[in-house]
Amino acid sequence: MRTVFPSDIVVGTSPPEERIQPLLCLLNGFRLVGPDGSVPLTQSAQRLLAFLALRGHEIHRSKLAGVLWPDASESRSRGSLRSTLWRLPDPGKEAVEALGETLKLAGRVSVDFSEARQVASRVIDPSIRLPKEEPIDHMVEVLSAELLPDWYEDWVLIEAERWRQLRLHALEVLAERLMAHERYAEAMLAALAAVDGEPLRESGHAILMRIHIAEDNRSEAIAEFDRYRRLLDGELGVEPTDRLGWLLRDFLPGQRLGLSTT
Fold first, then answer.
1. Dihedrals φ, ψ of 153, to 5°?
2. Domain ranges within the chain, ordered by starting residue
3. What local confidence, expressed as pLDDT, does residue 254 receive?
4. Integer Cα distance of 1 and 160 in angstroms
5. What is the pLDDT of residue 188?
6. Conformational region of residue 37, where left means phi above 0, alpha means psi within -120 to 50, and beta covers everything else
7. Which pTM value belongs to this model?
């Protein structure tokens, strides 16, 4: 029987018998999965569950209503919250735990975003070894996922940016760790995902170039440098840092790389 890794739960691809509790998906879009599959929810209900999941602990009803309906009066926002709670289908009701005047996400609900953060923390922690049987391609898929794309509330955007920075850093660290063990194909997969996540971020391109150099693919390293150089010039009108150019110093002249001579 296949071992079920946390990342299997993250994207909700494990068979039903392996996933007992409800699953709340926030990565690459919102979805609540119950025993009978996806649960249809109103936009207000989606935002209610998403906020409770991101907060991670209980919140007073009045404060929650004010966040979800910021343009309404206190009485009207409280009324909207009551209506949203009342209209929740049974799987949605079971996902919310009421404690007097406070609400929180029920502990039995599994959240893919929480699992994804655990994957990122595991990758970044140097004391935790990456087992050879770890599904690297699946880890890269999890770390490439966006948090609630196309949601523009402030409370979402703040968390989405935190996750973006964490996952990009984790992808780069994963590529570095795999490269150190000469697992170059897997390292390339992680580095390419990091570059795709933020094309203007120099650190991802640097790792890509180092992987090419480690495999003695000098032409690939040079081509990657040139691509990034053109991208930076076209988008920002600036040059890569000397640190990036120095990766090629052993087989290209400094003038070709645009390195400073001082």
1. -65, 145
2. 22-108, 199-262
3. 54
4. 35
5. 97
6. left
7. 0.85
Which residues make Cβ contacts (< 8 Å) with residue 194, sequence separation at least 6? 168, 171, 172, 175, 201, 203, 204, 207
Q: What is the amino acid identity at position 154?
A: D
Q: How many residues would you count in the chain?
A: 262
115-137 exposure pattern, b = at least 16 Cβ within 10 A, e = fewer: bbbebbebbeeeeeebeeebebe
Rounded distance between C-alpha atoms, residue 186 and residue 78, angstroms: 50
Distance CA 173, CA 185 (A): 15
Average pLDDT per consecutive 10 residues, the chain (262 residues; last block may be shorter): 33 43 95 93 97 96 96 96 96 94 96 96 92 81 97 96 98 97 95 98 97 96 96 96 90 58 48
In the numeric block, which tokens belong to residue 37? 């599959």
Q: Which fold has domain 22-108?
A: Arc Repressor Mutant, subunit A (1.10.10)
pLDDT of residue 109: 96
